[in-house]
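anyone seen this seq b4? input:
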Amino acid sequence: MRIISGKYKGKKLQGFNIEGTRPTMDRVKESLFAMIQNYIPGSIVLDLFAGSGALGLEAISQGAKTCYLIDNNIEAINTIKTNSQNMDENIIIMHTDYKKYLKTTDKQFDIIFLDPPYQQNQLNKALKIIEERNLLKDGGIVICEYEIGMPITNLKLLKTKSYGPKKIDIFGK
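predicted toks r here
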């Protein structure tokens, strides 16, 4: 894994081997970021199930102003800390449960990445809280990565793309 574009292009990223997780492949990440590139400069980003931090750190490399990287797994948090070393932007790393974070934050975001572990049914729960608490700014986007089922939301579907069994939906407000 690596950062594919921007200020930190080529920076190697560590992964980890935690059951139920899988990193976004570089080719998928490259395609995804091509679709959202106009939303990134100056944005405030939430990478909610951050894992290795690859999506949020890519956004920082491509010009996001601030990125919140949230995960409840300490191994993931340690990996994010390693991967974000020598990056001098505003990167906030938090070890907490996604529901707790969403229910207590007072922030609004321009871009929200939702790439939860697949078999845990967290995607729609997170979307519901994001909508209820108005955490997405007007004109903002939510990127959902999943394999089974479809995200349920009142947000407008802007784009969808499949990569084998993996699907990415981009919703806007």
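The chain has a mean pLDDT of 92. The domain at 26-172 is CATH 3.40.50.150 (Rossmann fold). kinda curious what u guys think
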